[in-house]
Design brief:
This protein has 437 residues and is mainly alpha-helical. It contains 15 helices and no strands. The chain is globular, with a radius of gyration of 22 Å. The relative contact order is 0.14.
Length: 437
């Protein structure tokens, strides 16, 4: 068949794109299309969230800083409740249907908030804001967890080790785009309009879901992977306690969340002691965020896949606990701003760029039912449960008069346990990957 000039140009363009990708990551030609749709998918989801995140933060402050712990408790309860109807959808429908339904449910919620916020009075906004704060906190973890559930259902363990870091870069770029859009438009565009923008991005994500489901057969997965998962509605809640492997994954997430909360409170104490001006505090946090995003994107694009290949999954999972251990040890002896800055930038960027993609690989070897149900429960309820444990434990230590050094010592002990947990999970995942047909 003779090739037209347009066909030749398209092939040349595709060849150039593949060649460029090969310089960044170890990708196969048949994986490029799915990789592109995965990028668009997570870009849309994170952009949608980061458009709304500044609105949530402002409403949380307006509702009273002293009430934040109760807002987090409400978030935990909401996530526990929401997991049940989601598991019911997974039980009854194929992924090409229950994922779009899930996202459109959240999109409908956003539209309801847009209408309500358009008509309520300033006095009523405080209570609406508290509900919105809880809902957005649920939305964030849930929609991202569903994204990764689909990704681990489509890509194999071997592909995940090569590609998940690069896919995560789409999330970083989406976060930058969403927050930048809100920052530039917030003073000129009403909140309901920004929320409608989030809804449009969710619809883009739904479109990407359908394309990814159709492309799954090109990634060496059987087309029947889109069949109904079935199983029990409560499997997501019960399986993490029955499986030693899923229990280990839960422990990994729990220890991560607890130490993250400890560091959050340590950061608040150190910043409060060193910056009296609110503007200086805001600029300080913004500088850390910028440095984290830049470093994260560089590592995701160029190094994550190579790190997993060089070190193996277990050692890769252990990197963040090791960094946490040494970081808290440093804060125990040097509770200074510069030590906090270095620790926060390295820890957060390591989480986004290395630990998060690596821990998603853990789910590629579990049954399909657990990829959606148990994963959703672990990523949302267990994660927020860790927040609660960390927050109330820190408050208890503080009430006993324990200072930064003592609290950092507790965090070091938790990080040591977390390190052993990560090494065990890596070895166990590799054994399960060999056994998996």
């Amino acid at each position: 068949m003779n090739k037209t000039p347009a066909t030749t140009a398209a092939e040349d363009g595709g060849g150039i794109l593949f060649s460029w990708l090969r310089r960044l990551i170890d990708v196969r030609r048949q994986e490029v299309a799915a990789l592109a749709w995965a990028w668009l998918y997570i870009f849309a989801v994170l952009s949608s969230y980061y458009i709304m995140r500044p609105i949530r933060e402002q409403m949380g402050v307006a509702g009273g800083v002293n009430n934040l712990q109760w807002l987090f408790t409400g978030t935990l309860i909401g996530m526990l409740v929401l997991n049940v109807p989601f598991a019911w959808l997974v039980r009854r429908l194929p992924r090409s249907r229950f994922i779009p339904i899930t996202y459109r449910f959240f999109a409908l919620n956003i539209l309801v908030f847009a209408v309500v916020l358009h008509y309520v009075t300033p006095e009523q906004t405080i209570w609406i804001g508290r509900v919105f704060f809880i809902w957005i906190s649920i939305y964030n973890l849930f929609v991202v967890s569903v994204f990764w559930a689909l990704i681990v259902d489509i890509f194999s363990s071997e592909q995940g080790k090569r590609l998940f870091g690069f896919i995560a870069a789409g999330a970083t770029i989406g976060a930058i785009a969403g927050s930048g859009l809100t920052a530039s438009l917030a003073r000129h565009v009403a909140v309901p309009i920004l929320l409608i923008g989030s809804v449009i991005l969710l619809e883009v994500a739904v479109f990407a879901v359908r394309r990814l489901s159709k492309l799954s057969s090109s990634l060496h997965r059987h087309p029947s992977q889109d069949r109904v998962v079935g199983g029990s509605v409560f499997a997501g809640i019960t399986h993490p306690f029955k499986s030693p492997y899923l229990l280990g994954v839960s422990a990994f997430i729990l220890l991560f969340a607890i130490t993250t909360t400890f560091l959050y409170f340590e950061q608040a104490a150190i910043v409060k002691a060193n910056f009296s001006d609110r503007g200086a505090q805001t600029a300080f946090f913004a500088s850390i965020d910028l440095a984290v995003n830049v470093l994260t994107l560089i590592v995701q694009l160029f190094f994550t896949g190579r790190i997993v290949r060089w070190l193996g999954l277990g050692a890769t999972l252990a990197l963040l606990p090791v960094l946490t251990l040494f970081g808290f040890a440093a804060l125990a002896f040097i509770p200074a701003v510069w030590a906090l800055v270095v620790f926060q930038i390295l820890r957060r960027s390591s989480d986004y760029a290395i630990a998060r993609p690596a821990r998603e690989v853990l789910y590629t070897v579990v049954p399909r039912e657990d990829r959606y149900k148990a994963k959703s429960f672990i990523d949302t309820v267990v994660y927020r449960g860790g927040d609660q444990v960390g927050a109330w434990t820190y408050a208890g230590f503080s009430s006993l008069g324990l200072g930064t050094s003592a609290i950092a010592g507790v965090a070091v002990a938790l990080a040591a346990l977390w390190l052993l947990n990560g090494l065990w999970l890596g070895k166990r995942q590799e054994k399960l990957a060999v056994q998996k047909p």
